[in-house]
Amino acid sequence: MSDLEVQRWQRYGHDRLYVRRPDGEQLGYWDCRTGTAVLADGGDDAGRAAFDAALAAHPDVVRPRASPEQADGALEEVAPVPAPRAPAAPEAAAEPMSAAGETAAVELPWTDLTSRRPGAAARAKAVELRRAAPVRTLLARLLGVHTEERAWRIGADGEEAVAAELARLGGRWRVLHAVPVGERGSDIDHVVVGPGGVFTINTKHHPRARVWVGGSTVMVDGQRVPYVRNSRHEARRAGRLLAAAGAGPVDVTGVVAVVGARGGLIIRSQPGDVVVTGRRRLARWLGAQPPRLTDDEVARVHDVARRSSTWVRHRPD
Predict the structure, then answer these.
(1) Average pLDDT per 10 consecutive residues for the chain, totaling 317 residues
(2) How far is the C-alpha of 4 from the C-alpha of 55, rounded, in Å?
(3) What CA–CA distance (Å, rounded) separates 204 from 207?
(4) In terms of Cα–Cα distance, which of 32, 83, 33, 39 is closest to 61?
(5) Could you tell me if 13 and 136 lie in one domain?
(6) Does residue 123 contact residue 152 with C-beta atoms inside 8 Å?
(7) Is residue 103 part of a domain?
(8) Quick one: 165 and 231 in the same domain?
(9) Does residue 221 lie in a domain region?
(10) pTM of the model
(11) CA dist 251 to 59, 111, 191, 300, 312, Å?
């Protein structure tokens, strides 16, 4: 059945050959590690025959010795499970076959994060809280009471201000905003990839506050906050996820971008592995970083970073 496609997928401890029709319908897969076949639910005899025929001549299919019950030479079948289908969106399609004739890995479904607006998650949360209690929210604003709705709204304003500053970077830089991470609703305010490296930027908006930084200690109006620790964790997590998704070894630097702070931003000493800076100095600081990535490397890392599937920690089946 020459019209069928066989594509290899190697990730998260799996090594499989997926068989699908030209329209994207998955017939099932061959597990190269266990030497077993798994058919998609609803497969009929014709589909099974086509599946067997497509795999019969594939060089990576190594069949176990047939038992008496399998003397007819059919592939071993285990309990059927749904095989992943190719998504309809063009950006989620599998990579094409290489010029050398090797089949590329089948990509998991993903959406393009380049269209995400800065502060999207924080703004959505603020709107949700405001709609849940419109009268209370209005009174809190009039009285200057600090509420959860205000915290999310001010946070979104800060992310938009930082995004405007990042827009000043040159064309060799790539910026993503409100990158959703994991499955618990958290996100990274900004992910920046450029000649100077890869950075996760955590925006902290403190209108009229005084912010003091001494190494890993950050104080806002005299109250200690865990900004450095959180930024360090965020950068390390981003590096692991990017590497696992195929970006290769990636060193990610955590940055805390302070917005507002009309009472003053006083930096006695930097934390070392995390950088704290004012919003107005952010683009200039990034642009002054020594070259670490070529243009091709920037494009490669950004291509991995913009995929929503990169930022979800997948578990084996």
Answers:
(1) 70 68 72 68 66 71 42 36 36 40 54 87 73 70 68 82 94 94 84 97 92 96 95 95 90 95 93 93 95 95 94 59
(2) 10
(3) 10
(4) 32
(5) no
(6) yes
(7) no
(8) yes
(9) yes
(10) 0.63
(11) 38, 24, 13, 14, 19
- Cβ-based neighbour number of residue 211 at 10 Å: 23
Range of the domain at 23: 5-92
If asked whether residues 120 and 27 sit together in one domain, one would say no
> Distance from CA of residue 202 to its chain's centroid?
16
Distance between CA atoms of residues 96 and 90, nearest Å: 12
Question: Are residues 44 and 180 both part of a single domain?
Answer: no
Could you tell me if 47 and 1 are in contact, meaning their C-beta atoms sit under 8 angstroms apart? no
**Token match 């609703």: residue?**
185
The 8-class DSSP code of residue 91 comes to G
Give the whole-angstrom CA distance, residue 7 versus residue 98: 11
pLDDT digits (tens, 9 = 90+) for 114-170: 988 887 777 777 677 777 777 666 666 666 666 777 777 778 888 999 999 999 998
Rounded CA-CA distance 237/35 in Å is: 34
What angle (nearest 5°) sits at the alpha carbon of residue 138, between those of residues 134 and 144?
Answer: 140
Cross-sheet strand order for the sheet of 274-278: 174-181, 186-194, 197-206, 252-260, 274-278
Instruction: Measure the CA–CA gap between 242 and 311, rounded to whole angstroms.
Output: 8
**Six-digit token string for 267:** 């930096």
Distance CA 11, CA 33 (A): 12
Q: How many CB atoms lie within 10 A of CB 152?
A: 21
Specify the number of domains making up the chain. 2
Handedness of CA 296, 298, 299, 304 (dihedral sign): positive
CA quadruple 243, 302, 107, 241: dihedral positive or negative?
A: positive
Q: Which residue has the tokens 């020459």?
A: 2
Question: What values do phi and psi take at 33, rounded to 5?
Answer: -80, -40
Q: Quote the pLDDT of residue 13.
A: 55
Task: Find the DSSP H helices in 13-170.
Answer: 45-56, 120-132, 134-143, 148-166
